[in-house]
Amino acid sequence: MSLIKVKLSFSGGMELLFNNTKQKHIEISSTINPPNATTMKDLILWIRENLLKERPELFMSGDTVRPGILVLINETDWELEGELEYEIKDGDDIVFISTLHGG
């Protein structure tokens, strides 16, 4: 089993769900579900289980992020990268931004 390093960033209010953490460098298995490569779906579930401190319903809906959360993979909208099916690579920079604001 090899480990891959990933930089996670949370902003737009997302950091409040992660104990006010705006950035986190993590190492995860390259095969969370062997023999398949680790995907964004795996990473999101891992984040929920290992990093999320409160109110998971504000981060996830089913097995994906809630509507209103913009996800960037290496500065590119995750919709262009395959969303949940994107295979996580060593050195990826993944950003979660809440676009929902009270007013």
TrEMBL record:
Its main location: cytoplasm. The modification 1-thioglycine is found at residue 103. It comes from the Eukaryota. GO terms for cellular component: cytosol. There is a cross-link at residue 103 (Glycyl lysine isopeptide (Gly-Lys) (interchain with K-? in acceptor proteins)). Pfam families: Urm1 (PF09138). Acts as a sulfur carrier required for 2-thiolation of mcm(5)S(2)U at tRNA wobble positions of cytosolic tRNA(Lys), tRNA(Glu) and tRNA(Gln). Serves as sulfur donor in tRNA 2-thiolation reaction by being thiocarboxylated (-COSH) at its C-terminus by the MOCS3 homolog UBA4. The sulfur is then transferred to tRNA to form 2-thiolation of mcm(5)S(2)U. Prior mcm(5) tRNA modification by the elongator complex is required for 2-thiolation. Also acts as a ubiquitin-like protein (UBL) that is covalently conjugated via an isopeptide bond to lysine residues of target proteins such as AHP1. This is Ubiquitin-related modifier 1. The lineage of its organism: Eukaryota, Fungi, Fungi incertae sedis, Mucoromycota, Glomeromycotina.
